[in-house]
Design a protein that fits this description.
The structure holds two protein chains of two kinds.
Chain A: H1 6-12, H2 14-21, E1 25-32, H3 39-49, H4 55-68, H5 85-90, E2 97-102, E3 106-112, H6 120-128, E4 132-138, H7 145-156, E5 161-167, H8 176-192, E6 199-202, H9 226-232, H10 237-242, E7 246-248, E8 251-256, E9 259-265, E10 270-271, E11 276-280, E12 285-292, E13 301-302, E14 306-311, E15 322-325, E16 331-342, E17 353-358, E18 361-367, E19 372-374, E20 381-382, E21 392-405, H11 412-415, E22 416-420, E23 427-436, H12 438-442, H13 452-459, E24 464-469, H14 476-489, E25 494-498, H15 499-502, H16 514-533, E26 537-541, H17 547-556, E27 562-568, H18 571-577, H19 582-587, E28 609-612, H20 618-629
Parallel strand pairs in A: 1-3, 1-4, 4-5, 5-6, 24-26, 24-27, 25-26, 27-28
Antiparallel strand pairs in A: 2-3, 7-15, 8-9, 9-14, 10-13, 11-12, 11-15, 12-14, 16-21, 16-23, 17-18, 17-22, 18-21, 19-20, 19-21, 22-23
Helix pairs in contact in A: 1-2, 14-20, 16-17
Chain B: H1 7-25, E1 29-32, H2 37-50, E2 59-63, H3 69-82, E3 86-90, H4 92-96, H5 106-124, E4 128-130, E5 147-150, E6 178-181, H6 189-199, E7 210-217, E8 220-223, E9 238-244, E10 255-257, H7 263-272, H8 290-297
Helix pairs in contact in B: 1-2, 2-6, 6-7
Classes of the chains: A alpha/beta, B alpha/beta.
Chain lengths: ~625, ~300
């Protein structure tokens, strides 16, 4: 059955066997195919053929095959790999699963990724760690939309080794003409999206043709078997080690005063004691003293190894910094163009800050509206204002501080990033940096002699932002107005920014979608910040429905200068008042995206002040706000 | 000229990277230590990750009081050797009720292990716990993330796990939530044995064949490790040359008859044998998906 007959060696000379297996290399690959392409069957066969299935598992498999299998009385290899109980009942894989098998030459980690359209996310996840992709095609169906999508995604994620496995050849009578037509068809498509090279092969996962042994059914095929190819394909180890040295610092090892080591996994290149290195983003240059490991100091360390370096000088270096070749460091920037794969049910909100994790760096980042979205079936560019679940687009983004990076094409480790929602902590997107925007290199912060302290001193006050948030009609503007009048009488220099008024000018290009609401608040936040730099006490009256944006504005301000005031009026009460008649319109469906009706309001969890308008007058509320500002609460 | 990295070196580098990532980002990590071979490898990797420092977290043994004596000896030895703090938790409720594997069946595992683990994590306030589970152990584990998030009441929600791309792990979490981290997810049983061999990692002698007092029950060979073992009428311990492929509570761990006294011989037997690792463990026999259910309830 199998070409692997390791039993003989194991039985005769276990030491020789162990020695052989300790020198195996590792290949990670993904399999992609449509629902019925026979992917699980092929993976099941690979496991089976490499003797990774034990007798008891085989017995269970045979029993399962008879009970729920789709292959009649024969073994249904797919049952070996289909996983979680619910999925098994549905008969489809719905997540990424990792499988393992080994031959004498290599260990393999297989990411099993599903073919359904809505699971772009899972395929991207599986492809991110793969060196090679096996694209499965049903010989009866030829190149399908899904085939194009899988190939595009594999290519997008930087996989340059593709195997085109034309499967189910047994069901087309091992017909060479059918095979060749599919390969030609695919070749034309591959060239159109920039895939320079792929390795086609005719196989049958079910019958085992050309999986581990050359099949007598395809005498016209001269290429390698699937396993033969996977065992021998070049792993790019030499190329990775020839790249310039990069070590993203994960952790500073400081067990005592005499030792300070910088730990991390080498993302590219080679390092030796004595090498000159540059710490990024600071740019300080120093020399590597030692490469410290549990097994003794190393004379050389290479890409893919986890090591600890010590440096000759006492330079500032901590988690998030990158230790790079001094004469060929990576770039540092804070504005980029990137491809973004959106992975959350909540759509992307341009302008909203997300956490961005790249290498060991975690920064706050905002994404602009996409330049375009890619239709993953046709690769056509579409206009888009946002990105929904499983959408792929290209957009500019900026980070709140410079990060060390490389383009994704040069380095997965320093060019691939994830975006994290600041409220839910969910991973909402994956991204790949293309390049930094030139303007980020050319726009510098200008320092002036008259600073914010001077402005504030002249006015004899401490700048502040009094941020009123609450439903439409809650009383924000009324209370803010009363507060401002009182402050004026106290000789305070103030300015009131009102939601309706700002939308007549600065923000008149914005509507009321979630994305526009985010941008509205971002701009108001920036204006309020400039006004605090000018020394003013700023009052703002905006619904500002989302916690994330209110938090973003808080982060913009100097510590202690932002006060979130929750004007808490129940929806029923605000609707009853309906000063502007807006609730009536919204209820009648004449006004879309109205907060409280068909757009959410996220009340503050820990406001600096909560005003219950059902128990106090605007004047009493204003007194409370002033007490808050003066630090009397 | 390039340096070749073997599959074991690449697995090692990945595991070390995971350990460091957690220590850099979690507030209070802990390593769950079960004294078995997977724990032995995990501990070894942790020591490598932080050398020359000791691993900057304690090791936690959720004890059932029913482990093999040789396991308790190994636990003390490894704690001393690694320089790590050893925490032992025994569920006081299970202790008071005298829960044992002879009378209480699966309740024994539920209370001592599942409940005991939750109690210990809550007691010390750990927000990240390293565990030695591997994806090749069982079908549902093939889909488990390396970083697995648990709600404040320790439940695992298979529909709500985060995608893991590249080497980027999102470790952010709300207060009360915790992470189970599996640094050896991508190791197989064969990798584990080869690595133990290559690195000369100390493991409990029970993994090697030796003459031991045993009885045979329901198709399992059980070792009579101390006088708490309840012999049935007419049952007599018989000396057999046995070893264990997996270690747990001694009255629940099935031995295999074996002559393998050295590590290469054990690996040789493992490779030539045709029953998978978990068969010696009583927990999985009920249903194919039972591990998944246990996981949702908080079993590691």
């Amino acid at each position: 059955m199998s070409v692997y007959e390791p039993e003989a060696l194991i039985a005769q000379d276990i030491d020789a066997y162990l020695d052989q297996h300790q020198h195996k290399s590792l290949l990670r690959f993904i399999t992609c195919g449509s629902v019925d392409d026979g992917k699980s069957t092929l993976i099941g066969r690979l496991l089976y053929e490499s003797k990774m299935i034990f007798e008891d598992q085989l017995a269970a498999l045979e029993a399962d095959s008879k009970r729920v299998g789709t292959q009649g009385q024969n073994i249904d290899f797919a049952l070996l790999v289909d996983g979680l109980a619910a999925e098994r009942e549905q008969g489809i894989t719905i997540d990424v699963a990792y499988r393992f098998f080994t031959t004498d030459k290599r260990k393999f980690i297989v990411a099993d990724t599903p073919g359904h359209e809505q699971y772009t996310r899972n395929m991207v996840t599986g492809a991110s760690t793969a060196d090679l992709a096996v694209i499965l095609i049903d010989a009866r169906k030829g190149v399908l939309t899904q085939t194009r999508r899988h190939s595009y995604l594999a290519h997008l994620l930087g996989i340059r080794k593709l195997v085109l496995a034309v499967n189910k050849m047994d069901l087309v009578g091992y017909d060479q003409a059918i095979y060749q037509a599919i390969v030609d068809d695919y070749a034309a498509f591959a060239a159109s999206i920039g895939i320079a090279h792929f390795t086609p092969m005719p196989i049958s996962g079910y019958q085992g043709d050309n999986v581990t042994t050359r099949s007598a059914n395809t005498p016209w095929y001269q290429g390698p078997t699937l396993i033969g190819h996977l065992e021998t394909v070049d792993l790019d180890i030499a190329a990775d080690q020839a790249k310039p040295f990069r070590l993203p610092v994960q952790w500073v090892n400081r067990p005592n005063q005499d030792f300070r080591g910088f730990a991390g996994l080498i993302a590219g290149g080679t390092v030796k004691p004595g090498d000159q290195v540059r710490i990024l983003p600071s740019g300080r240059v120093t020399t590597v003293s030692r490469i410290v490991t549990f097994d003794g100091d190393l004379a050389v360390a290479v890409a893919g190894q986890s090591v600890t370096l010590t440096l000759a000088d006492e330079v500032d270096c901590s988690r998030g910094d990158v230790i790079a070749a001094a004469d060929d460091p990576c770039q540092v920037a804070d504005q980029f163009e990137a491809t973004i794969v959106w992975m959350a049910a909540e759509p992307m909100l341009p302008g909203r800050p997300y956490w961005l994790k790249l290498g060991t760096q975690l920064v706050s980042a905002t994404i602009q509206a996409p330049k375009y979205q890619v239709n993953v079936n046709t690769m056509a560019h579409l206009a888009a204002k946002t990105l929904d679940l499983n959408a792929i687009g290209v957009a500019n983004l900026s980070t709140d501080r410079p990060i060390s990076f490389e383009s994704y094409a040069d380095s997965r480790d320093l060019g691939g990033f994830i975006l994290i929602d600041k409220m839910t902590n969910a991973t909402v997107a994956a991204g790949m940096l293309h390049f930094s925007l030139r303007r980020s290199q050319n726009v510098h912060w200008q320092a002036f002699d008259v600073g914010r302290e001077a402005h504030a001193r002249l006015k004899n006050q401490k700048p502040a932002v009094l941020w009123f948030t609450g439903l439409s009609g809650a009383g924000k503007s009324t209370i803010a107005n009363t507060v401002e009048k009182k402050l004026l009488r106290m000789n305070r220099h103030t300015f009131l920014l009102d939601g309706d008024n700002v939308r007549h000018g600065l923000n008149k290009d914005l509507g009321f979608t979630d994305a526009d609401r985010v941008e509205n608040i971002r701009r108001v936040g920036e204006v309020a910040r400039l006004m605090t730099d000018a020394g003013l006490v700023v009052l703002t009256a905006f619904i500002s429905p989302f916690r994330a944006e209110r938090e973003m504005v808080r982060q913009m301000m100097a510590p202690g200068e932002f006060f979130e005031i929750f004007v808490d009026t129940p929806l029923a009460e605000a609707e009853k008042r309906d000063v502007k008649g807006l609730y009536q319109k919204a209820r009648a469906g004449k006004l879309k995206n109205f907060t409280g009706i068909d757009s959410p309001y996220e009340p503050p969890e820990h406001p600096d002040l909560r005003i219950d308008t059902s128990i106090m007058t605007p004047d009493e509320a204003a007194e409370l706000v002033i007490a808050l500002l003066l630090g009397e609460l | 000229m390039s340096v070749e990295l073997t599959h074991l070196r690449r697995l090692e580098a990945e595991s070390i990277h995971i350990f460091r990532e957690v220590v850099a980002e979690a507030e209070s990590p802990v390593m769950l230590y079960s004294v078995g071979k997977d724990s032995a490898v995990m501990l070894h990797l942790a020591r490598k990750a932080f050398f020359p420092a000791s691993p900057p977290f304690p090791m936690l043994h959720v004890d059932t009081t029913w482990k093999f004596r040789a396991m308790y000896e190994m636990r003390e030895r490894m704690a001393a050797e690694s320089g790590m703090q050893l925490l032992v938790h025994q569920n006081p409720d299970a202790m008071a009720r005298g829960i044992n594997p002879f009378d209480h069946g699966s309740l024994h595992t539920d209370l001592w292990k599942t409940e005991g683990l939750k109690q210990a994590l809550d007691k010390y306030g750990f927000d990240a716990a390293f565990g030695g589970a591997r994806r090749d152990e069982e079908k549902s584990r093939a889909k488990e993330r390396i970083f697995s998030f648990r709600s404040a009441n320790h439940r695992w929600d298979p529909k709500n796990q985060r995608p893991e791309l590249w080497r980027l792990y999102n470790t952010r979490k709300a207060k009360g939530e915790s992470i189970r981290v599996f640094p050896i997810s991508n190791w197989t049983e064969l990798d584990i044995w080869q690595y133990i061999h290559l690195e000369s990692i100390p493991i409990v002698p029970l993994y090697f064949a030796e003459e031991r007092p045993t009885v045979e029950r329901d198709g399992l060979i059980l070792m009579v490790d101390d006088d708490r073992f309840r012999l049935k009428p007419g049952e007599r311990p018989v000396m057999r040359s046995v070893r264990f492929r997996t270690l747990g509570c001694y009255p629940l761990s099935g031995a295999v008859e074996s002559q393998a006294k050295t590590l290469p011989e054990v690996i040789q037997e493992m490779l030539l044998t045709t029953t998978s690792e978990r068969q010696g463990r009583a927990i999985d026999h009920d249903q194919a998906a039972s591990m998944e259910k246990k996981k949702q309830e908080g079993y590691f």
